Amino acid sequence: MTFLRAIGLLLLLFATSGASAQSNETALRETIADLSSVKNFRETEEIVRSLGATGDPVVGRVLNALSDGNVSFRKSDNVVFIVSERAGRAKLFDPISGDEVGEATTTELTKVKVNNGLRRSIREVFATLTLGSPNPAVRQQAADTMFISPDPAAIEGLDAAIAKEDVASVKQRMVQARAAAVLASDLPEADKLAAIEVIGARGDRSALSLLVSYQGRSEGALREAAASAASGIESTIAVWNAAQNVWYGISLGSVLLLAAIGLAITFGVMGVINMAHGEMVMIGAYTTFVVQNIIRTSYPGLFDYSLAIALPLAFLVAGFVGLVMERGLIRFLYGRPLETLLATWGVSLVLQQLVRTMFGPTNREVGNPSWMSGSFQLGEMAITWNRLWIVVFSLAVFALLLYIFNRTAWGLQMRAVTANRRMAASMGIRTPWVDAFTFALGSGIAGIAGVALSQVDNVSPDLGQGYIIDSFMVVVFGGVGNLWGTLVGAMSLGILNKFLEPYAGAVLGKILVLVLIILFIQKRPRGLFALKGRAVEA
Amino acid sequence: MSKSGTILYLDGVSVSFDGFRAINNLSLVLDRGEMRAIIGPNGAGKTTMMDIVTGKTKPDSGEVYFNGEIDLTRHDEADIAMMGIGRKFQKPTVFESHTVEDNLMLSLKGPRSIFPALFHRKTADEVRRIDDILGIIRLGDKRHMLGANLSHGQKQWLEIGMLLAQDPKLLLVDEPVAGMTDAETEETARLLKDIAKTHSVIVVEHDMHFVRELGVKVTCLHEGSVLSEGTLDFVSADDRVVEVYLGR
Amino acid sequence: MITRRFFANGADRRIFITIGLLLGVAVLVPILNIALPPDSAFHVPSYMVALVGKYLCFALLALALDLVWGYCGILSLGHGAFFALGGYAMGMYLMRQIGDRGVYGNPILPDFMVFLNWKELPWFWYGFDQFWFAVIMVMLVPGLLAFIFGWFAFRSRVTGVYLSIITQAMTYALLLAFFRNDMGFGGNNGLTDFKDILGFNVQANTTRSAIFAASAVALALGVFITWAIINSKYGKLLIAVRDAESRTRFIGWRPENVKLFAFTVSAVMAGIAGALYVPQVGIINPGEFAPANSIEVVIWTAVGGRGTIVGPIVGALLVNAGKSWFTGVLPEYWLFALGGLFIATTLFLPRGVIGMWDHWMATYRERKAAALPPSAGTPAATTPQQREWQASATGGAPEPQPAE
């Protein structure tokens, strides 16, 4: 309890550091110095109350120490210190700043005595001190701390604070903290039932653990009420857990979408199985690495823009490699999909080894810009910024591709070539160029996927290998010839994976997904969104 | 309509792909031993109709009966082929890596399971059957030639020969004379008329001269249903047929 | 006609020469290894026996793949899985043979189970103390997996690249599964530290030579069985399914059954190859399931020539000898070489070494024949596959086809 209180105090100190308190530091010091001349507990209590009356959070330190019996004064000059004793020696700390100011033997010091009555007064003062803070965040923090470590003695202070509180959300927390304290008190059953209701309405994990532990030490109606409130919270939490899983699933799905969508384009439009697609992703990730390296050494101020700079570069680099591949290799293999598969596998081996030779076999450090680090809380789920940005980014890429396909002249040409190559050619569309640029587009998209993936995965020469099978599964599952299929495929596989994980474990979950896809293909050999053909000789 | 005495009986058959109605309430009856020519513009549903009869496509609704008693919608391609319906594709499809003889040998009527095929030895009877068919399809001297090296017309004949080897009751022949010379076309017409003496046959063809040479009842399909049916003269006099297919 | 008969006879003769060679090697190499003193010029060093023995197992694996890819057009990217399963079955037998000589001295449980604090043997380890049981499992497990997988895949008419991708997913799933400790197959480390096989020390020269001989004989047997299958009516059907699947369906065959049989036989062959491989290298671990391994098998087959029986054997020997040389001399360049091989083979040598040779010989003979009687201007023998190859060789512009 002391420990938790100390944490609360620390937070409080952070929140109010450098506040107006400094002006009356001298007055504080004088009041504290009086501790060396107290005759009895009543006098000590008066000092405590007058310290609390200052409303300055800085007095928390000395009050805390006093409650723990760690305040002494030096016999020689009656200066009061917070002490930390060990084997006859004591370290001396300033009671206000907390800085270490010297050492003494225990015999040179006299302890300021405390008893339980005094301790209770100290706690009360404490509560009003933090609950009365001008900063609502501090008040809320204090209420939450008191909720986690309820103390019947604090009810009074809480009541006072609740009456004064005018921020509704903080007030609610205080009411909850009071309810927790009521449960710990010996108040009548009706009060406790009301308290259980309040705690049950809070609905988070700490409320649950409070209720569960209370359920263990209560009986009768109270026990039942606690149990039903706990199960109510459990179901709320289950919903949040499901939401969290969906979020993880969407996050994984967006990664899959990024990795697979370029593949869906090349496979859908050209029927080309590009086994080196994963390496295009890797190239994108290494482009990010190089860009960040240059920025770190030459223009450190631009670091937050490194990804924005890397995106077009990665698109161009990977797209160029794709273009070279298509013109130099794949166009000779059209109509022979199995051979294309083998040749592009060969390319993937060469690219991997090339990167390994240039950058070394180990993981490379790619940093997160500040706007992509950290996380925030949404209800009971934690959402990291980098995941959120990747979801947003993948959807943006998807929308862009949808636009290119459905609204631009180039997209029209691609669709025409997909539908009927010969007819498109005789209408004057340069089909070889459409092929080449479609392939370059697919590769370039893989490159920018690499920029995004560099934020959540290790950048190593094997980066692409880890995604290739998953991406193929997405494309096969979603069906080709329709970008929506890829979106639905990626998201449903991502979410399915994350829902299986808690029950089956990560590896087994993945295996299950693979098996499910293999079974799914039995039912719909051409995927979820396949176009139905009616050609008989196929 | 009574099913008895018919070799093929389609009633009220419909099928659609992604909202497109390829076959729309189609009814068609073929008597035993009859040869029928089917004409119609592209997309009229001729090939889809064959898909339905041979079990490749399941109809959304309607009845398809073979021999008056067997519901074809309950069987798959291999079953239907074994019942005695042979089908020639629009694009001639033979086993190009095999000789003409092996092509026929693989098509000969007989058990269709793996282990008999594994331990199969050619019998004198089979050799005689192959010789017969080679005679019928005019490929007697090409016996050892690879399928790939046949001319387009010869491939068409070989494919018809493969159907005959199955000893079918009904043959579905899709555009047998596409890409043939005039001489080959005439020869094919004779060939089909020979076959029609002992089999029921449906021929899909665009070549009106060839249809006339066959001299059989004609059905014209349009947008998935029967537009007109009768002798060629009757059908080609029908204004609607002229409108959608023959042209003025 | 004459050409064809000569050609067929030539092919048959080649098969019998191969089988003879393999049987000869099976006898000769062990003799040269054991009977001759190490300083003799004809002595075959033990490391060489182990190395070539390994290659022979790979050759059998490549031959198995050729049966389905070369003759039936099924590009399996998961044959490494069948190989590894056969290897694990053999490895389990070898583990049980260790008995109480393991580090922990448990007479029943293999070391890794003791280490994981397992109390009793999992049910699927029962019976593996018997050699005959292990031998049955070596064939049954890969065969059964192939049968079940193929039954699902072929029945629903999954073909082409889709099939390739799901075979790859299959081996990937097995890779993940075997990496798990609680699967009961030694997890990450796999099975190793073998002691005896049939009561003989696996490390001993004589045992190694015997396993070498067994590998050569198994390969010879594989060649014979493949040859017998290909030359039966079923074999012709197999090729027919490769060239025109729907045609076979519409004359009453069930292509799914045709493929299923070949796929299962092929998986059993791969399993046997794996079982012979494991005692020679002394370890089996989940790495054998890696998709990259399975694709490498494809390139052995492609280099030698798919659709020929000798081709995959030649390919497996050549590529693996190359790999051994590279990893010894220029280890960092091996992946460049392998990658280049994939590209070069598909672009310039689609028929592989043996296929190319046959093609040259056929062209040569045809020219000679054509030169004699001017009337015999029969067109060059072309199959659809060959035409495709010619198109690519002459730089014709083949067209991409969107996936269906």
Question: What are the salient characteristics of this protein?
Answer:
heterotrimer, A: 538 residues, alpha+beta, five-stranded antiparallel beta sheet, two-stranded antiparallel ribbon, 68% helix, disordered C terminus, B: 248 residues, alpha/beta, six-stranded mixed beta sheet, four-stranded antiparallel beta sheet, 10 helices, 10 strands, 25% strand, globular
Our estimate of the beta-strand percent of chain A is 5-15%
Order of helices and strands of chain C: HHHHHHEEEHHHHEHHHHH
Task: Please state the oligomeric state of the protein chains shown.
Answer: heterotrimer
The unreliable regions of chain C are: 1-8, 374-382, 386-397
Overall average residue pLDDT of chain A:
82
**Which residues of chain A form runs of ≥5 with pLDDT under 50?**
13-23, 532-538
User: What coarse outline of chain A follows from CA principal-axis ratios?
Assistant: elongated
Give a short account of the largest sheet of chain C: 2 strands, antiparallel
Side by side, the strands of the main sheet of chain C go: 1-4
Distance between the termini of chain A: 75 Å
What is the helical fraction of chain C, as a range of percent? 55-70%
Question: What is the CA-based Rg of chain C, rounded?
Answer: 23 Å
Q: How far apart are the first and last residues' alpha carbons of chain C, in Å?
A: 40 Å
Treating each run of at least 4 consecutive H or I residues as one helix, how many helices of chain C? 15
